[in-house]
């Protein structure tokens, strides 16, 4: 039986700022390129078997079908040797310079080929997040004007969102062609907007529908009338919308919910917002997402700044874990938890918009790789709960295999059975389409 997936992640964001002139590479800024072996040692020392991790796409992907796999080959070979299961981020808030940005309509098909080539090169990888935090990526890039295209309009946001969501869907299909038992843990920010007054109810309702758009498109869920009109008014065509409705990939998905203290917002009648702090909390908001999508859940990101008292992050860890247990005890199939990230980060206090080289004390370890109190607390939590908290979700029809198990007959048989089911579903779909066409 697959056990509960305790995880961490290595922060690998790489958006551009300053009109595309400056690349923010968190793998470089957090010294992972020099210390990646040390970082994997830390993962093992914590007793963690699952790692949110991704290649630096802006350095790997040199052009359509052209790659520099040097660093990625070394790192992933070492993960396989250590038997650490990567949850692979293929796109984390940025694209290579030659693609431009998320306004590029060619990105989905190009990314589809990139994802297929990655899966072929690393066939033992089973877990993926094709595009990390699709909603946040589109908002920060094309609505707030912070990253990448740095635009600030509804039309730019809808363009980015449909490009990103289509890229995610096509990547899932491409990976399943190679690894038919792949599972997609779609890390996505869990948001909620609180109305400040009766006059703010309408903008709050709008934003509380908007927050679902990325996952609605990804999972083929029909949006409400207001969201449909918003999409159509801002550049999505009916044919583009129909593309998402006809995708049937939910059976391969785990819903990843990210939650930080900044994920809840207070909204005013004019639509302006600011962070409200924790009001509902992870369990309440995750319940809203589960009601909408009905998928297995993983808490895929959280962290908290270690402050002057030194125990602030430890207390937040305890609170988030209590929320995870509450979700589980409510009968929802929650399969994993993640403290993000392994080490401290750099300049996330300005959302990477400013190069201040300011270290944010958010990690399980400091940048010199000394453990923080929250790192010790997480290690103890994992040791205490691992053996008594099996995954109980009936939705996980395919077991999650460890890297060393890839060549085992049982795993190969599961892959072949998944391939046959995928072929059979394709034949049934073609038969239905043919029947409708004849009628």
Automatic annotation (TrEMBL):
GO MF annotations, alphabetized: hydrolase activity, hydrolyzing O-glycosyl compounds
Source species: Microvirga lotononidis
Descriptive protein name: Beta-glucosidase/6-phospho-beta-glucosidase/beta-galactosidase
Biological-process GO terms, alphabetical: carbohydrate metabolic process
Superkingdom of the organism of origin: Bacteria
Residue spans crossing the bilayer: none
């Amino acid at each position: 039986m697959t056990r509960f997936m305790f995880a961490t992640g290595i922060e690998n964001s790489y958006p551009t700022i300053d009109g595309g002139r400056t690349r923010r590479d968190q793998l470089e800024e957090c010294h992972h390129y020099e210390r990646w072996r040390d970082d994997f040692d830390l993962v093992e020392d914590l007793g963690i078997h699952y790692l949110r991790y991704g290649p630096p796409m802006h350095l790997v992907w040199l052009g359509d079908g052209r790659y520099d796999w040097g660093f990625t080959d070394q790192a992933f070979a070492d993960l396989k040797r250590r038997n650490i299961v990567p949850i692979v981020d293929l796109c984390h808030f940025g694209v290579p310079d030659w693609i431009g940005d998320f306004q590029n309509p060619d990105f989905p098909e190009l990314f589809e080929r990139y994802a297929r080539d990655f899966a072929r090169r690393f066939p033992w990888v089973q877990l993926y997040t094709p595009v990390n935090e699709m909603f946040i990526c589109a908002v920060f890039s094309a609505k707030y004007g912070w990253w990448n295209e740095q635009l600030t309009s509804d039309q730019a946001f809808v363009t980015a969102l449909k490009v990103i969501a289509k890229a995610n869907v096509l990547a899932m299909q491409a990976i399943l062609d190679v690894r038919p038992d792949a599972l997609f843990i779609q890390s996505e920010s869990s948001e909620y907007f609180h109305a400040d007054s009766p006059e703010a109810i309408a903008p709050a309702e709008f934003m509380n529908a908007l927050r679902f758009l990325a996952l609605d498109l990804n999972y083929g869920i029909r949006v409400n009338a207001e969201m449909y009109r918003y999409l159509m008014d801002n550049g999505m065509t009916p044919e583009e919308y129909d593309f998402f409705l006809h995708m049937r990939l939910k059976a391969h998905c785990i819903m990843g919910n990210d939650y930080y203290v900044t994920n809840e917002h207070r909204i005013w009648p004019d639509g302006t917002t600011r962070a409200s702090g924790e009001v509902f909390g992870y369990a309440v908001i995750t319940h809203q997402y589960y009601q909408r999508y009905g998928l297995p859940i993983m808490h895929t990101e959280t962290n908290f700044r270690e402050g002057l008292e030194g125990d602030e992050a430890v207390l937040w860890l305890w609170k988030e874990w209590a929320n995870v247990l509450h979700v589980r005890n409510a009968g929802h199939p929650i399969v994993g938890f993640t403290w993000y990230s392994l080490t401290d980060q750099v300049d996330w206090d300005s959302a990477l918009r400013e190069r201040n080289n300011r270290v944010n004390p958010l990690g399980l370890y400091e940048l010199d790789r000394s453990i923080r109190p929250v790192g010790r607390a997480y290690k103890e939590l994992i040791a205490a709960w691992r053996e008594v908290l099996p995954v109980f979700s009936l939705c996980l029809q395919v077991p999650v295999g460890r890297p060393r198990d890839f060549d085992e007959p049982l795993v190969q048989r599961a892959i072949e059975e998944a391939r046959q089911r995928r072929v059979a579903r394709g034949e049934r779909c073609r038969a239905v389409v043919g029947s409708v066409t004849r009628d």
